[in-house]
Design goal:
With about 500 residues, the protein is α+β, with helices and mostly antiparallel strands. It contains 12 helices and 17 strands. About 40% of the residues lie in helices and about 25% in strands. Strands 6, 7, 8, 9, 10 and 11 form a 6-stranded antiparallel beta sheet that branches. The two termini are about 30 Å apart.
């Protein structure tokens, strides 16, 4: 019988409500018939519902790490609550009779295999079928030439837009951010729209963020908005300057393909997993445990961002997953949720960059967290606060880096100091704890922990950040890892 976990079902569910409804259907005996194929790759359930006829629900495990649910109900959710309920039936080890795999499922499998073979052939260039090898080679060369010409044209257009952005930044630097007030903001909003015409969504978002912060400063006069605007302007200027040099070099060398640089995504490019694998960014047989999770709204992007923090059980590195949900597509993009378990990933890929690299994967098997996993995290955590602080400072001074650097730190104690909290290592090194700008507060939750032992001789998942008001580096506590459990302050 197929092995299914609670974490896997939760990860597949379009939302928490669908998962809860699926569990209820299973618990209340909603299925009047349960069957599976002899080879254990196909499961079927006949489920009672609100319609005149029962619903036929199936789960296809032809790819065991990526099961496909199908149902005859009219729901637009995928998978629907009936598909999730059938997974809960499998999880509960219910009795399934043996059946043949329906013809329509076999045809769907054949079509899927044909699509995958076609995609593979297209990527490798083996899909050209022609009796004349010379003609096939010419056709392939013509396609490559056409693709290169299109990419070259795009890079030149981006350079034009960057010149426009550079002039804008120069004018702002000379005149000062105070000149953005009043009706002048309308002109900058028009310029932001123009950047989109130059294939520069990244710089466009930065300019939109700058406009939002200046607008907020004009309304309430809070210095935090002005300081945020200065930080955005610095990142905007750095991105434009480095990108101009980067694109100019690529055009001069005739190299228009993506390469291992954060600038590609910062300019607005979107990576495919296959492209990242081709750059050697793959991470085979990864075992990642999620330690923290939060959701932010980015007004400049007009998107919700679901962020998960994952620790590699082999190296102790902390990676992040990000799920972007634009306001315009909220009903189409599934919201991610907390994962309480270990993701066993056949092939994960990392994005270019520094610090906590973004990671993605196509499929994963989830298993419960074991005591041995938590002991590994204790063994892999940093013990020298001085070394970790130095690495954080070197990273955070890069204007294009993320504003936080997340690490696992062993500590002797977490305790009150004046009006706040601080972390102290076994060597007596200390750092103040606080809440990073734009993040949900978590530091005060340390005072609500039920056991004093959680504040002594454990491991902290903490995010280094620069507190501009205090003029110092601080750390936001995200989770505490003991030998027995992960205690999340953000989840």
């Amino acid at each position: 019988m197929q092995q299914v976990t609670e974490q896997q079902i939760q990860a597949m569910a379009p939302n928490a409500t669908a998962a809860a409804n699926g569990r209820k259907i299973s618990q209340k005996g909603g299925f009047v018939r349960l069957e599976r194929s002899a080879d254990d790759t196909f499961y079927l359930g006949e489920c009672t519902g609100s319609g005149k006829s029962n619903y036929i629900t199936t789960v296809d495990f032809i790819e065991s790490d990526n099961p496909v649910c199908r149902c005859s109900c009219p729901s637009r959710q995928f998978p629907c609550k009936h598909g999730l309920a059938l997974l809960y039936e499998i999880l509960a080890k219910k009795n399934f009779g043996i059946c043949e795999i329906p013809e329509d499922i076999l045809k769907k499998r054949e079509k899927k295999q044909a699509r995958e073979a076609k995609n593979t052939a297209a990527q490798t260039g083996d899909g050209v079928t022609c009796e004349d090898p010379e003609a096939a080679a010419k056709k392939k060369a013509a396609a490559a030439k056409s693709a290169k010409a299109a990419k070259t044209k795009k890079l030149k257009k981006q350079l034009e837009g960057l010149e426009l952005a550079a002039k804008l930044i120069q004018d702002l630097t000379r005149a000062g951010l105070g000149t953005m007030g009043g009706t002048v903001l309308k002109n900058y909003e028009q310029l932001a729209k123009q950047l989109g015409d130059y294939y520069l969504p990244g710089p466009q978002r930065l300019l939109n963020g700058l406009i939002l912060e200046i607008s907020a400063f004009q309304k309430d006069g809070k210095e935090e908005h002005y300081e945020a605007a200065i930080a955005i302007l610095e990142k905007f200027r750095t991105l434009v300057k480095k990108s101009q040099q980067y694109l100019s070099d690529k055009l001069e060398q005739g190299d228009v393909e993506q390469d291992d640089t954060v600038l590609y995504e910062e300019l607005g490019g979107i990576w495919k997993l296959s492209e990242l694998e081709a750059l050697g960014k793959g991470k085979a047989d990864a075992n990642l445990i999620q330690l923290s999770f939060w959701v932010n709204y980015d007004a400049a992007r007009k998107e919700y961002i679901d962020t998960g923090c994952w620790a590699d059980l082999k190296s102790g590195e902390v990676f992040v997953t990000r799920n972007y949900r634009p306001l315009k597509a909220l009903k189409y993009v599934k919201e991610e949720d907390t994962v309480f378990g270990v993701a066993c990933v056949p092939m994960a890929v990392c994005y270019p960059g520094e610090g906590n690299l973004r990671v993605r994967w196509d499929s994963a098997r989830f298993r419960p967290v074991e005591r041995e996993d938590l002991q590994k995290l204790h063994a892999l955590s940093g013990t020298s606060l001085a070394a970790e602080t130095k690495a954080a400072k070197n990273l955070l001074k890069n204007a294009l880096a993320e504003p936080m650097y997340i690490r696992l730190i062993s500590f002797a104690q977490l305790g009150k100091t004046g009006d706040g909290f601080a972390l102290e290592t076994e060597e007596g090194e200390t750092i103040a704890l606080g809440d990073a700008p734009g993040m949900e507060p978590s530091t005060d939750r340390l005072a609500l922990l039920p056991e004093e032992s959680l504040l002594r001789h454990q491991v902290l998942l903490g995010a280094f950040y620069y507190d501009s008001k205090a003029g110092r580096l601080k750390m936001q506590p995200l989770s505490i890892i003991t030998d027995e459990a992960v205690v999340r302050l953000l989840y």
